[in-house]
Amino acid sequence: MWLNLYATRLVLKNLGVEDMGVYGVVGSIVGLFSIIASGITSTIQRFITFELGKVGGEVNKVFCSSLNIIFLLSAFILILLESAGIWFLNNRVNIPQASIDAAFWVYQFSVLTCIVNLINIPYDALVIAHEKMDAYAIISFLQVFLTCAVAYCLSLFDSQRLFVYALLMAVISVLVRLLYQVYCHIKFQESHYHIIIDRGTMKQIGKFAGVSTASGMLNCLYLQGIVLVINWTFGVAINAVYTIALQLKNSVLSFAFNIFKAMSPQITKTYANGEIETHKHLVYSASKLQVYMIFFIMIPFLFRTNFILQLWLDDVPPYMISYARAIIVLSLLYAIFEPIRTAVLATNKIVKFMIIPNVFYVLSLPICYLFAIWSDRLLF
Fold it and tell me: Which residue has the higher pLDDT, 220 or 338?
């Protein structure tokens, strides 16, 4: 978490507010067009963990079927990103003239990262399902350490820093993906890929993924829509503030979610085995623990926001304090909800639970846009 926060400070210092805003808004386009696969992560994690929890579960069949689905999705998303995504970047995004060429390459590297991360999903799911938290911790730490190193190395370049940053971040994604694949091939027999076409398994995964994706589409439409609303009304400077706030949220949540990652597989496995009382106890305990971890950060942060942000960023952008406080409170809500979400996913009864709440998120977008037009001082 601390390395991530320090990396954000270095990126802001070496890229500047405008280039960091460009990086954030271009990355949001990739996120906007890759929402088709947004439900596949939780789907694969659920099915692989569920099979491991069953007596005589066919984990390799689920793993290979998951990869088959991901290969098809990756090809479709790549075509979509290189056609509609390019058009959207060139015609609907407010980017400073001096950064247009760099924005194109940032987009291409973001596309590469997106595809690589998609292919990595089943391998990451295997590591978590087997509860190999030592390997997960080592690879995660290496990724964060390299990210911090890249942010520091930007100061060695006199020009094209945005291009260099996007390139090196893509390289890190490829390296992490290879590490996960090599580790899984060595440790887990079920990670050996075979061309298996099991219609029943693929149908189950596809149905679950369809509902999760519909929910993810709504959620991503909200999250990325906010980025575009900010871009259209306030410009890339406020996009940079929002990007920093999201990195703060991710860092704070990772602090709490690392505890939950050790409990998440057991929540699914105990349900698969019919151990309902143990299952409930794990859900409640995980929710409480995550809240305590967020409180550990949130309480001092809310009282000393300005001091902490100056210590972190050195040069604090305008409106950063308001965004940071709001995102910390939002992180608490995410922390409470995540164990309950995992429990519901284990039951496979997810339609109403995942669709209805996200509809309300999307309904906030036109309201945000109207408020942004009426006043650039709202909430500040």
Answer: 338
